[in-house]
Amino acid sequence: MSEWLVLSLAMAAACAVVLTIVVINHRRIPEDDDPSETPDVIEYMTMMIGVIYAIVLGLAIAGVWEARGAAQETVRQEAQALHEISARAEVYPQEVRARIRADVEAYASHVVHDEWKHMSETGELSDEGTALLEKVRRSVTDYRPANDFEGQAYQPLVDQVAAVDDARNARGQNAGETMPGVVWFGLIVGALVTVGLIFTLQIRRTGRELLLAGLFSVLIAFLLFLIWDFDAPYGRGMSATATPFTDLFPRLDG
């Protein structure tokens, strides 16, 4: 099921529930009821709880957005380090250079075409990707430089392999969901409390009040969906992408 379809259904369901409760509650209100009699303390508490929940939602959205940005930067660093390995191998003999570049492209191709899907589905890196990176490491470290010129390029190449490994490990650590379960519990309970408190204000069944109640519940549902979608940096609709790999290794698009 499409994530946007899930969002649409969630917002429609939230709006329908709130409007249904409003209509049912309106039928139970006696005709002589005066909505202006809502105690000031209830209005004050409703406002304060709404403000507090808005702050919590803002912090949650900022947190998952920052995690997504960090995840995308990790992918960029990994792809850039791979590109540096391929470029700096130019000083090596043709046979060694070709082997290193072939291993680099094999690893990058696996990340883009296979590991990315595996990572989004399982939240883990693939064993094959680990093996391919180890093959790149062996291709770089097992070669003995034949002269000083090649020797000067050897250590930077080894450092770039370490940078790829470090970025890959960071990508693996961020592959799953970043929000703890207790935070989700607080967000959902807070949403129910915040939406529920609007019924303490004696909402009438007028078009304006029903519209505002529906839009408020839709907004809460949308913001929760946004947090959920950003919560898995590599696994959902607005997640980090493998674009840095395809930008630096154009042949992967084919």
TrEMBL record:
The name this protein goes by in its record: Integral membrane protein
Lineage per the UniProt record: Bacteria, Bacillati, Actinomycetota, Actinomycetes, Kitasatosporales
Transmembrane segments: 6-24, 44-65, 182-203, 210-228
One Pfam family hit: Bestrophin-like
Keywords attached to this entry: Membrane, Transmembrane, Transmembrane helix
